Amino acid sequence: MSTLTYMMYAADKKKSINGEWRTKESTLLVSSVFFGAPGGLVAMYQLRHKTNHWYFVFINWLALIVQVTVFVYFLTL
Question: 3-class secondary structure for the chain?
């Protein structure tokens, strides 16, 4: 899922450069929240995309923390 999220951010970045219709912000955020936060964060900083939007930074980091916590929890069962 992280790879898909990364590709969505990359496609949106390309569309923004070309002046095309963009991917909805809510679509990008939902993709990050549902186990794509690592890909979203890497894309944000590697592609310099959406890093000025505080809510993108906050939601992606929060989603990553939750996803890692859930992952560790299931590893300890």
Answer: CHHHHHHHHHHHHHHHHHCCCCCCHHHHHHHHHCCCHHHHHHHHHHCCCCCCCHHHHHHHHHHHHHHHHHHHHHHCC
pTM for this prediction: 0.91
Mean pLDDT, contiguous 10-residue spans, the chain (77 residues): 95 97 96 94 96 96 96 96
Question: Which sequence spans correspond to the domains of the chain?
Answer: 2-75
Q: Is the dihedral of CA 67, 68, 71, 73 positive or negative?
A: negative
